[in-house]
Amino acid sequence: MKLPATGLASRELSRDQGAIAGVTINASEQTVLKALGQPVEVQAERDGITEQRARRLIYEGLVVYLVEDKVQNLKCSAPAFATADGVRVGDPVAKLLAVYGGGERYRVEKGEILRYRLSGSDVYLVFHLLADRVTMVELWFDYT
Fold it and tell me: What residues make up the domain containing 134?
């Protein structure tokens, strides 16, 4: 599958498209627990940028990072969870491109990344790719 040129700007996605497993950025911890149930593990820490109280809710194949009880990042490594548009780990790049079109493309040590900005925000839906497959899906807020 031929990907768009490196760094090519993409169309923005609607805010409704910014969810993994029904969880969005800034969702409360209570909302996460209602959507996903109890995590396998909880790790308490301080956020490295804001120094505020943070927690990682760890599920099988999904990590939800919260700062002051609000979701700041989701990292999905299992096909059990999908984006709001039904794209998940293991899907072919062709499906990703059919659903979202070309994104901002970056080469990384192990494969490539396609990322899409959510309209009017500093939130990105990010797909890690290797061997023509989605290997990880992230939803994150850009602090910078």
Answer: 15-141
